[in-house]
Amino acid sequence: MDMLSATLGRVKPSPTIAVTTKAAELKAEGRDVIGLGAGEPDFDTPDHIKDAAKAAIDAGKTKYTAPDGIPELKQAICAKFKRDNGLDYTPKQVSVGTGGKQILYNALMATLNPGDEVIIPAPYWVSYPDMVLLGGGEPVVVECGIEQGFKMTPKQLNDAITPKTKWLIFNSPSNPTGAGYTREELKALTDVLVHHPHVLIMTDDMYEHLRFGDFEFTTPAQVEPELYDRTLTCNGVSKAYSMTGWRIGYAAGPEWLIGAMRKIQSQSTSNPCSISQWAAVEALNGPQEFLQDWCRSFERRRDLVVSELNQCKGITCPTPDGAFYVYPSIAELIGMVSPAGTAIDSDEAFATALLEEEGVAVVFGAAFGLSPAFRVSYATSEAALTEAMTRIKRFCAGCS
C-alpha cells in the first residue's frame, strides 16, 4: 500500500538546495569546492538588527504572538510600503510568515482549486511551479528567452490568460536572471491585466533593494492603482538585510486574502519566531544606509562575473539589473564533450561535470524552466568568484 499522498508525487525537491547540499558533502570529503549555488548574501546581519533581537530576548519577548505577526511589525511593514513604494496599507492587510516562501505558499493554498491556472514567466524561481502543484493548481509556464532580456511581453501575458487563470506570479528583479522590468515595461503588462479582472497578481519583490545603476524598482500595484485590490505584494528581510536564517517574509493585499492566509498559517506553523519578528521591526525601521554599500559590492561582483563569463568559450552572459545572480547561456556548448570526456547533452550534464571536474557548484538552467543555461550566485567574496571564473574558463576551454 502506498503510504504517501498522491499530491507529493506532483512535486520535486528544491534543486538549489540539492546543489548546496552536494557542494557541502564534497567539501566535507576534503574536496576544494566553490559554491555558487546558494542565494544567500555573505554579509553578516547588521549589528543594530542583532542588538534588537538580543534586547527582545532580554525583555522576555519569547512567547507566542498573533499567528501572522506582532502589531509592531505590521506597522513597520505598512510604513515600509508607504515609504518605498507609495502604497497605503493597514495592519489588517498585512501577513507575516516564516520566510517569503511561506507567504507565497499560504496565498496559493488559500485560493487554488483543482484546474486553476497560474501563469509563471520562465526562467522562474524553482519553488513557484511546485507550490502551485501542491495547491492543486496547474502552472502555465511562459518562456522568456535571452533574446527578450528574460522578460515577458504583453502579448505573451495576454495569450497565456484563460478563463481558468487564477494568478500571475511576477518577480523583478528576478531570481535566477537578475532581470528587472522598467516602469514602462511593467505598465504595459498591467495594462493587459486591467482587462482581465479575474486574475490575481502575486508580486515577489524580495530583491527590491538590490539593484544597480540607474534601474528604478517599481511594483505592479504602484504602477497601476486599479490592480491594488487584487494584488498581493510580497517581500521579506532575508536578502536585503542578510537575514536568511531569521525566516521572516511578509505581504500586503486585500483583507479577504490576508484573512484566508491567516487561517492557513494558524493551522500550520502559527506565528513566526517572536525574536525574529522584533529583529525585522528594527530592520525595516532602522538605518538603511548600509544597503548602498552592499549594492556597490554586489555591483562590483556582478561586473567581474559578467566580464569573465563572456570571455569563456561557448558562454553568453547578459548583464542583470539587480539581485545577485547571472544566468548565462551555454547553447554553444551543448553537444560537446567536457575535458574529462563527459557528454554535455544538457545544462544539468554541464553543471554536474563542472562540479566533478573543477569543483565549482552552479545550478543548471532546467531547474528554472529555461535551458540551456546555468545560474551563478555572486553573493560571495571577490576572491572566491575570481578563482571560480578561472576554473569555469578552463573547463569551457577544454570542451570539444
UniProtKB/TrEMBL annotation:
EC number of the protein: 2.6.1.-
GO terms, biological process: amino acid metabolic process
Family: Belongs to the class-I pyridoxal-phosphate-dependent aminotransferase family.
Reactions listed under catalytic activity: L-aspartate + 2-oxoglutarate = oxaloacetate + L-glutamate
CDD domains assigned: AAT_like
Record keyword Nucleotide-binding present: no
Domain Aminotransferase class I/classII large, residue spans: 32-392
UniProt keyword annotation of Transferase present: yes
GO MF annotations, alphabetized: L-aspartate:2-oxoglutarate aminotransferase activity; pyridoxal phosphate binding
Source organism superkingdom: Bacteria
Quaternary data: Homodimer.
Organism (species): Palleronia salina
InterPro entries: Aminotransferase_I/II_large (IPR004839), AspAT/PAT-like (IPR050596), NHTrfase_class1_PyrdxlP-BS (IPR004838), PyrdxlP-dep_Trfase (IPR015424), PyrdxlP-dep_Trfase_major (IPR015421), PyrdxlP-dep_Trfase_small (IPR015422)
Entry keyword set: Aminotransferase, Pyridoxal phosphate, Transferase
Annotated protein name in UniProt: Aminotransferase
Needed co-factor(s): pyridoxal 5'-phosphate
